[in-house]
Each structure stands twice: as C-alpha cells, then as structure tokens.
Design a protein that fits this description.
Blueprint: H1 2-14, E1 29-30, E2 37-38, H2 65-72, H3 75-95, H4 98-106, H5 109-135, H6 139-143, H7 146-155, H8 157-167, H9 174-185, H10 197-207, H11 209-234, H12 243-254, H13 267-304, H14 306-311, H15 320-325
Helix pairs in contact: 3-5, 5-7, 5-8, 10-13, 11-12, 11-13
C-alpha cells in the first residue's frame, strides 16, 4: 500500500497543472513570453481517441495588445526606435537655439535640411503607428489606449510639415514651430515603453490614485488658507494685493521653491510662512513614504507571479494583503 501511494504521488507530481503550461519552467513549453505552446497535444491530457479537452487549447491570459506586441519585438527594432526618438528630440532642441535662427536667416538650405529630417522621422513614426494598429487585436482597444494616443501624436506632426511645405508660410512662424515642437516632445514618452519598471510604477500610481487626489486637495486648501492669512498680515503690500496673488506666494512657500518675487515683510507674515514651511515638509513627506511602501508591496506581488498570487489566500477568505496587515 505504501509503495502504491508513493507511485501515485510521483505520477501526480509529473503531471503539469493547467496554469503551469503558460509559465516558464516546464520542458514541454517553447518560445519566449506569451508565445509558448506545448510541443505535443498528447503531452497535456489528450484523450485516447485523439480529442483534447477545452483546457488544452486554452491560451495564456488576455494581455494588453500593445504590451504583447512590444514584448514580441526584437531588441534591434527597439534600439532603432529609441535612436529615432532621441534624434528627433535633439533635432527639435537644436532647431530652437539662437544660433540656428541666424543660420536660417542667412539661407534656406538649413530650413530645407530641418524640414526633410523632421518629415522623414515623422513618416517613420506614422508608419510605426499604422503597423501597431494593424497588428493589434482588437484594433479599437489599441487606438483608445494610452500608447495608441502617444503613437498617433508622435506621427501626426508629419501632416503639419506637409501643410507648411504646401502653404510655404510656416517656416518662419514662431507659433507654428512651437506647436510642432510640442507634438514632437510627446515622442519622449515612447521611451518609457521599453522600461520594464514603468509597468510597476503605473500599478503603484493606479492603486494610490485616490491618495494622490486627497493630497492635491489638501495642498489646495492649505494654499488658500495661507493666502488669506498673508493677505491679512501684509495689508496689501506689493505681491499681496489680492488673495490669488498671496496664494502664489503660499504655494511657493509650501513647496519650498521660494522664487523671491513676493516676500512677506511683517513679522506676523514671516511667522505664518515659517509655520507653513514646516507644514509643507510634512505634507510632502507623508505621500512619499506611502508611495515607497506601496511600490515595494507591488514589487513583491510582481515577483510572486500570477499563480502564486492566486494561491495566496487565507483560510478565512481574506486576501493576502489583509492577512499581511493582520
């Protein structure tokens, strides 16, 4: 009986569990990331007549289409994409410098060089957006997602470049160049797609979003109270002619920025500012500590893996987080 029980336990250990098929580790899986598939359908529970159960054909859990596509891209394409983004940002910054305006006034060759460079980079980003939209499943989910909007804005300035070339009146317009520079600056956000810790940070921000709103509301209330006190203490001096102007000084005081354009001169005003400086330090310290703790907890959850997270349930039905608090 003992030998039979040992043999049964050994056979149960060799049989893979359903969620083990899509995790790294089993020898029957091949391919990186979400593309893993069993080598043989019979290896995972096919019946004797050749039919297999529905669970055998079940794929990995649904994921974001943009994230899935990004995980399938080889690192060479990621390097090329990052190089194009950095080149575009550097080119935009150089074009706005003072010496470049003098070069543009001397001749039109510099203007044409910048135009063709921006048009080429913008066309590449627009093609990338079209390819990602075509490969996404479903396409509407990608178009309405955050990364879909970023990819679209990264390439939409190509339309502005073509329009300026046709109209031939935007090259020397400061407002047109500033508007296009703002659209090109959005391309910097594309660099965060290739940072693995970005997903961890977004998880932590999403979980603490209510706390961030409460923090902003507290800062607004304290700024209004401090602005009213400074308006009363300074008696309408320069920089404190109204409550909104006093609130500007209050925000600069609580955030410890201190521009120096509005400084209280009375003793009462300086005492009030000193008190709110300490309050500002305390307000900034609390959400920072909470964010660090939540980020560490989220990191632990990510390191545990999806299967381990599902198994971390307490007998009483409480979640792992509630049990950890207890």
């Amino acid at each position: 009986l003992k030998a039979a029980m040992s043999a049964h336990a050994a056979s149960q250990r060799t049989l893979p569990r359903p969620h083990d098929r899509w995790r790294a580790g089993p020898s029957g899986l091949e391919g990186p990331g979400p593309d893993r598939r069993p080598r043989d359908a019979k290896e995972f529970g096919s019946s004797s007549d050749g039919s297999s159960s529905d669970d055998d054909h079940a794929g990995p859990p649904a994921a974001d289409s943009s994230a899935t596509l990004a995980s399938r891209l080889p690192w060479q394409i990621e390097v090329v994409s990052v190089t194009f983004v950095v080149s575009s940002v550097v080119l935009t910054a150089v074009q706005s410098m003072h010496f470049n305006h003098q070069v543009e006034e001397d001749g039109s060759s510099a203007i044409q060089a910048f135009f063709w460079a921006h048009l080429t980079l913008g066309s590449i980003f627009m093609v990338e957006f079209i390819v990602r939209a075509a490969c996404a499943n479903p396409t509407s989910q990608y178009l309405c997602s955050f990364w879909g909007v970023v990819d679209f804005m990264s390439g939409v300035d190509t339309v502005g470049d073509i329009w300026c070339a046709v109209m031939a009146r935007c090259f020397h317009s400061f407002h047109a160049q500033a508007a296009e520079a703002m659209l090109r600056a959005v391309r910097c956000i594309k660099l965060l797609r290739y940072v693995p810790e970005m997903k961890l940070l977004m998880k932590a921000v999403k979980q603490e979003f209510k706390g961030i709103l409460v923090f902003m509301l507290c800062m607004l209330v304290f700024a209004f109270v401090l602005g009213c006190l400074l308006f009363w203490a300074e008696g309408g001096r320069k920089g404190f002619e109204s409550i909104p102007l006093a609130m500007w000084c209050a925000v600069a005081t609580m955030t410890t920025v201190g521009y120096g354009d509005a400084v209280p001169e009375s003793i009462l005003g300086r005492l009030i500012c000193s008190m709110f400086m300490l309050v500002g330090y305390s307000i900034l310290a609390v959400p920072t500590i909470i964010g660090i703790l939540n980020l560490r907890w989220t990191d632990d959850r990510f390191a545990a893996g999806p299967a381990t997270q599902a198994e971390r349930r307490w007998p009483s039905g409480r979640s792992w987080r509630a049990g950890r608090r207890a």
